[in-house]
């Protein structure tokens, strides 16, 4: 099989970006901090940010309680987030109707990375941040990772560092600014503002922050559970310095840009998905105890309560619910050459939490154990192929999902090269070039969070 050449000619995105980003991506052991210093800094931050996360019954959650009418789990302030019950009817996937809990967090948070030049090489200001749901405590986060409740200090905590550069960015400093969704199976209409902003020489790194080259971030992205989900989604919005200038090469794509857009619109029009709030107490197939809200068959996930103490967060101690998946996911992206141009196989997915019915997801996105009880015909498309080809994957890394809402949620993220004649099995799938995917990421609600992670990983290869 011919290896895929991902070193495409660059496409200018903001002034001087081609040479600057290429230099930053090439600087894997240098810049402000050497790689050895970077790893030592991460180890030091893990020790400094040691936190206690203890499972507690719901009655012990400070400030949280179940609504006596609906059974929904809410915070007393009415802010942060809540856990609701939904009834879903959908023509996507093997099950036509089901009920489930879902997280509702209507406020829009900020996920932002600050960029600053050091000797002409862009560096990203990354944060070592502990989250209660992380499997290993501290992971590499964006410069700012904050919900509106956090940065407006509903909890009475400290000010979010560097927030002013994203709330009021200097003229001409914004590189990317777009609303992007999060997991449509676990969040109802959740969006965050994904931002990349250039800052000046006056911006220094506090002790929990470090200026890293893009190459160093790519190096860490190849390791299990180091770069968190919020960093990965923002990184995917960074202009891709490898793309052809002016979109050259799009004429060699298997499908023209207008055809891809028309396909997305058609899938949104043709799919039927009906979402009805029903209250957590009336969520069929689920039960509630003192310690959990769980599925009667032990599948999918459960909602649990935790008590957290940490000396390095905006508040030193708090309680909250977390969604805990039962098993580890498999998220795979197939890549092949078409007339010398790399293409990735995306699926138009309809998920109950999406604002616009359908977003483009990876080739495979599932938890295999959740389908084990179903017949072979109802197994996720391409799952068997992904598992069979996993030994030859170009990227195989275990990555955590958002640790502020999910407890030990992980997926095996895979990038798998397939033959040039590998087919798309149905109209739910399309082969799309990285250049086309980069263009779609300029707009909201087109590419889901799992596909954004795999695009960031693809650029890191």
Automatic annotation (TrEMBL):
It comes from Streptomyces echinoruber. It comes from the Bacteria. Signal peptide: none annotated. GO terms for molecular function: lyase activity. InterPro entries: EvaA-like, EvaA-like_sf. This is NDP-hexose 2,3-dehydratase. Residues 35-238, 258-458 form the dTDP-4-dehydro-6-deoxy-alpha-D-glucopyranose 2,3-dehydratase domain.
């Amino acid at each position: 099989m011919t290896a895929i050449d991902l070193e495409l000619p660059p496409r200018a995105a903001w002034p001087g970006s081609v040479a600057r980003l290429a230099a930053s991506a090439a600087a894997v052991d240098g810049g402000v901090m050497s790689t050895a210093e970077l790893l030592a800094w991460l180890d030091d931050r893990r020790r400094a940010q040691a936190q206690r996360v203890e499972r507690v019954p719901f009655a012990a959650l400070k400030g949280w309680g179940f609504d006596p009418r609906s059974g929904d789990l809410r915070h007393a302030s009415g802010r942060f987030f809540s856990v609701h019950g939904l009834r879903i009817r959908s023509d996507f996937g093997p099950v036509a109707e089901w009920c489930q809990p879902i997280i509702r967090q209507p406020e829009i948070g900020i996920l932002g990375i600050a960029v600053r030049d050091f000797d002409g090489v862009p560096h990203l200001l990354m944060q070592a941040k502990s989250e209660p749901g992380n499997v290993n405590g501290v992971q590499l986060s964006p410069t700012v990772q904050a919900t509106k409740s956090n940065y407006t200090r509903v909890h009475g905590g400290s000010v979010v560092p560097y927030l002013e550069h994203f709330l009021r960015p200097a003229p001409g400093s914004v590189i990317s600014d777009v609303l992007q969704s999060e997991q449509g199976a676990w969040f109802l209409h959740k969006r965050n503002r994904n931002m990349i902003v250039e800052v000046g020489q006056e911006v220094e790194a506090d002790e929990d922050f470090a200026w890293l080259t893009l190459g160093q971030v790519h190096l860490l992205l190849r390791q299990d559970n180091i770069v968190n989900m919020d960093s990965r989604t923002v990184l995917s919005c960074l202009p891709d310095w490898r793309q052809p200038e002016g979109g050259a090469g799009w004429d060699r794509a298997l499908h023209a840009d207008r055809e891809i857009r028309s396909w997305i619109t058609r899938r949104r029009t043709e799919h039927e998905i009906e979402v009805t709030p029903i209250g957590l107490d009336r969520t069929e197939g689920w039960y509630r105890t003192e310690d959990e809200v769980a599925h009667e068959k032990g599948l999918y996930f459960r909602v649990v309560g935790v008590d957290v103490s940490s000396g390095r967060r905006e508040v030193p101690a708090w309680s909250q619910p977390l969604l805990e998946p039962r098993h580890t996911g498999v998220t795979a992206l197939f890549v092949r050459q078409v007339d010398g141009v790399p293409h990735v196989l995306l699926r138009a997915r309809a998920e109950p939490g999406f604002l616009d019915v359908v977003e483009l997801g990876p080739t495979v996105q599932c938890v295999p154990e959740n389908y084990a009880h179903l017949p072979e015909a109802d197994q996720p498309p391409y799952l068997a192929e992904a598992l069979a080809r996993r030994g030859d994957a170009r990227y195989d890394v275990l990555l955590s999902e958002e640790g502020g809402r999910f407890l030990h949620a992980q997926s095996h993220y895979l990038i798998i090269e397939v033959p040039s004649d590998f087919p798309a099995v149905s109209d739910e799938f399309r082969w799309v070039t990285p250049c086309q995917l980069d263009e779609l990421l300029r707009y909201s609600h087109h590419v889901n969070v799992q596909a954004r992670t795999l695009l960031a990983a693809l650029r890191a290869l």
